[in-house]
Design brief:
This protein is an all-alpha fold. The chain is built from 9 helices and 2 strands; from the N terminus they run αααααββαααα. The chain has helices at residues 2-23, 27-47, 51-75, 80-84, 91-110, 131-139, 144-165, 177-182, 185-188, and strands at 113-114, 117-118. A hairpin with a 2-residue loop joins β1 and β2 (117-118). α1 runs antiparallel to α2 and α2 runs antiparallel to α3.
Length: 202
């Protein structure tokens, strides 16, 4: 009974936080609602026994992604009124996308039983093996090449970001450390004795 109440509590708060994240006028409030949705999603993962995914939600998404979103939103001067001006124009496409996703969820829910045969809803792991250990064994044995390919894609993306950031730009004055070290105090300081009311000429 307590598990059912906890499930409905986490589910309702997650759905409400998601709706408020989309409809909030202040972008900082949207990020805070997103963090609340992540926390409650982690609670749902704990209820179904996926504590590793719950830990990932809290550490990776709340601790890194959502905080990064918050910093970016607070530091950038974005004209959100201009961004919202095109909402009506893209509303039909958004409704069509939501309808498509809803149909996919309904089909996936009904696909648990195909032709009267009930599918296995749980992973075939022994009760003595923790979820993290079972996931690690599965990733580094059956899906090893896919895992390495994903790491290679991330490495290429990282190198591409570094190359784009450190590309040569024209008209930029670079620092010359050798010239700064060779500079004498006589070259940087000019002693003047202006008269009263004359001021200093630059």
């Amino acid at each position: 009974m307590i598990q059912v109440l906890a499930f409905y509590l986490f589910a309702i708060v997650t759905v409400l936080a998601g709706v408020l994240c989309v409809t909030a006028r202040n972008p900082v409030h949207s990020v805070l609602w997103l963090i609340l949705a992540f926390f409650n999603s982690a609670g749902l993962m704990v209820l179904v026994g996926a504590e590793f995914i719950a830990m990932l939600l809290v550490i990776v998404y709340v601790g890194a992604v959502a905080v990064l979103f918050l910093f970016v939103v607070m530091m950038l001067d974005i004209d959100f009124a201009q961004l919202r001006s095109g909402t009506i124009k893209y509303l039909p496409a958004g409704i069509a996308l939501v309808a498509l996703l809803a149909i996919e969820i309904i089909v996936a829910t009904g696909a648990w039983s195909v032709g009267g045969v009930e599918l296995n809803r749980t992973a075939p792991t022994p009760d003595t093996v923790p979820n993290i250990q079972a996931l690690g064994i599965l990733i580094y044995t059956r899906y090893l090449y896919i895992f390495e390919a994903a790491g290679l894609v991330l490495l290429v993306a990282l190198i591409g970001a570094i190359v784009l950031t450190h590309r040569k730009r024209g008209g930029v004055r670079t620092q010359r450390v050798a010239d700064q070290n060779r500079r004498r105090p006589q070259d940087a300081i000019r002693n003047t004795q202006p008269t009263v009311g004359q001021g200093v000429e630059l």
